[in-house]
């Protein structure tokens, strides 16, 4: 592998409080590296590289690879073993970092074997910065990956499904068993890919859209007529047939349409 120096400094200890499960299967690492298109952008950010099993396959791609890692021991390992990467190793917390401080206004893709305990927060941050992130792929707990990609009508379908699919095309790619990690997690993992919908404009107030989706699913067993009571909508509006449905019955476009209906009567939290 180019830009890779064999490990001479010992393994990094997986830390439970960071949710670390280090990928050890080279074939899976190679498959994950291949999930991005590397097209339309030049820079790629890997979140949580650990000991760089995925990193070395990313470094073979025609892209400028950056990694962001909060664990000092992992950073030291990467600095010792990936010498040509040293200037692009960012010892920071992805959830707290200002992405423009890393890339300015440039577009970049994100990839990684994401810690389960912050994976949904990572997706929400990607949605906030979608103007800069055309593509995103990586490994999640299988249940979470399936939920992100799930379509309406399923019990797994929820807030994360709707909000992600409004802006990205979501695709579940393959399942990964616990045995390919050290230490092995107690559940299967799943790899997904998100590709941004180009020239897409959310035809409603975005903050109100988020509010409607989250409020609807907070009482997902109830009809929208009941779950959206807190919005204090007029009775004649709430007689519309869409309010007879439960939230999991609506696709993201129907939630956009619902938000447009509500917009003249609800105050968005701008």
From TrEMBL:
Catalytic activity: adenosine(1518)/adenosine(1519) in 16S rRNA + 4 S-adenosyl-L-methionine = N(6)-dimethyladenosine(1518)/N(6)-dimethyladenosine(1519) in 16S rRNA + 4 S-adenosyl-L-homocysteine + 4 H(+)
Single GO MF annotation: 16S rRNA (adenine(1518)-N(6)/adenine(1519)-N(6))-dimethyltransferase activity
SMART domains, alphabetized: rADc
Residues the record lists as binding S-adenosyl-L-methionine: 21, 23, 48, 69, 93, 113
Coarse class of the protein's main subcellular location: cytoplasm
Protein location: Cytoplasm
Pfam family of the protein (one): RrnaAD
UniProt key word Ribosomal protein: no
Enzyme Commission number: 2.1.1.182
Main enzyme class: transferase
Keyword Ribonucleoprotein: no
Segments forming domain Ribosomal RNA adenine methylase transferase N-terminal: 28-198
UniProt keyword annotations, A-Z: Cytoplasm, Methyltransferase, RNA-binding, rRNA processing, S-adenosyl-L-methionine, Transferase
Database matches in SUPFAM superfamilies: S-adenosyl-L-methionine-dependent methyltransferases
Function statement: Specifically dimethylates two adjacent adenosines (A1518 and A1519) in the loop of a conserved hairpin near the 3'-end of 16S rRNA in the 30S particle. May play a critical role in biogenesis of 30S subunits.
Similarity comment: Belongs to the class I-like SAM-binding methyltransferase superfamily. rRNA adenine N(6)-methyltransferase family. RsmA subfamily.
Protein name, per record: Ribosomal RNA small subunit methyltransferase A
């Amino acid at each position: 592998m180019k830009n890779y120096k064999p490990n001479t400094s010992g393994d990094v200890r997986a830390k439970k409080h960071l949710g670390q499960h280090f990928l050890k299967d080279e074939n899976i690492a190679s498959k994950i590296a291949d999930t991005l298109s590397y097209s339309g952008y030049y820079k790629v950010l890997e979140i949580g590289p650990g000991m760089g099993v995925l990193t070395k396959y990313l470094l073979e791609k025609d892209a400028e690879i950056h990694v962001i890692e909060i664990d000092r021991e992992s950073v030291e390992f990467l600095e010792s073993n990936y010498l040509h990467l040293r200037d692009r190793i960012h010892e920071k917390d992805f959830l707290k970092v200002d992405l423009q401080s890393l890339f300015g206004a440039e577009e970049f893709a994100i990839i990684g074997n994401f810690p389960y305990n912050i994976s949904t927060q990572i997706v929400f941050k990607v949605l906030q910065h979608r103007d800069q992130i055309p593509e995103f792929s990586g490994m999640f707990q299988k249940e979470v990956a399936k939920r992100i990609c799930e379509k309406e009508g399923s019990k797994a379908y929820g807030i994360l499904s709707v909000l992600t699919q409004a802006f990205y095309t979501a695709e579940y790619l393959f399942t990964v068993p616990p045995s390919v990690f050290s230490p092995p997690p107690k559940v299967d993992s799943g790899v997904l890919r998100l590709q941004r919908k180009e020239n897409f404009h959310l035809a409603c107030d975005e903050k109100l859209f988020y509010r409607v989706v989250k409020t609807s699913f907070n009482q997902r067993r109830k009809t929208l007529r009941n779950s959206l009571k807190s919005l204090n909508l007029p009775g004649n509006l709430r007689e519309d047939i869409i309010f007879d449905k439960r939230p999991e019955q609506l696709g993201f476009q129907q939630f956009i349409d619902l938000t447009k209906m509500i917009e003249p009567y609800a105050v968005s939290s701008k």
